[in-house]
Design goal:
6-stranded mixed β-sheet; 6 strands; disordered C terminus; 3 helices; 26% helix
């Protein structure tokens, strides 16, 4: 299935990116989520983008003590039951205004939960481009 974002999805993305900038998680929050003591970003509609074809994308930011600020993506199956391939993941990341390369080390596929997790550090080599208005 070809993945393409249209203006309505791009508007959703801009809203989600703005929302994420106002609700930045800490590593302690991730532990609380894992232990069921805090709701996850995927349970907060402010972090979610629904794309044509049934693709569900959750985007949020986390401040790590050792990696610095990181972009987080959780991407679920589309209506055909497929997880995105790497070119689709690169397309998604770019649509969120992130230009740094998506390396295999940034991607984790959780076959048990059928979700792709992407963690991209901002880092000194990273510069985010502003989303097209």
């Amino acid at each position: 299935m070809v993945l393409a974002f249209f203006e309505n999805e791009r508007q959703q993305i801009r809203k989600v990116v703005d929302y994420a900038k106002n609700y930045i998680y800490q590593t302690d929050d991730l532990l609380d989520m894992k232990n069921g003591e805090m709701t996850t970003p995927g349970e907060d509609p402010g972090h979610l983008v629904l794309v044509g074809g049934g693709r569900w994308i959750c985007y949020y930011l986390v401040d790590h003590p050792n990696k610095g600020r990181c972009h987080y993506f959780d991407i679920k199956l589309d209506i055909s039951g497929e997880l995105p391939d790497k070119p689709q993941m690169e397309y998604i990341v770019k649509e969120f205004g992130i230009d740094n390369p998506l390396m295999d080390e940034h991607i984790k596929i959780n076959n048990e939960e059928m979700v792709v997790n992407i963690v991209l550090p901002f880092g000194s080599f990273f510069t985010a481009t502003s989303l097209k208005k």
